[in-house]
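Continuing from the previous page...

OK, I double-checked the sequence for protein-N(pi)-phosphohistidine--D-fructose phosphotransferase against my notes and this is the correct one:
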Amino acid sequence: MFIVCVAACPTGIAHTYMAAEALEMLGKKNGWEIKVETQGSTGIENEITEDDIARADGAIIATEILIDGVERFELLTKLECSVADPIKQPDAVYNTMMHLINNK
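Thanks. Re-ran it with the corrected sequence; updated structure tokens here:
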């Protein structure tokens, strides 16, 4: 399973990168291939491409702000959550994403 993710917080520093790391760990733990794009004070890093989106099974948008390019994900099964959720509740994020994918 391939999941694309975006992590972003208002300042784009600590929580953005903590969430990105938590999402990558979530992927490893559950056998997902993960690509995490971060949006913050340094701009967009590890940008998700059209090819990534075309092969993705779903998207996790973990943000506290309106992200650039949100429309890219409109055709994907998508979980929108707080940037803190992957950090504090990774199992809930996983279970919710799997529920969405399995019930689309």
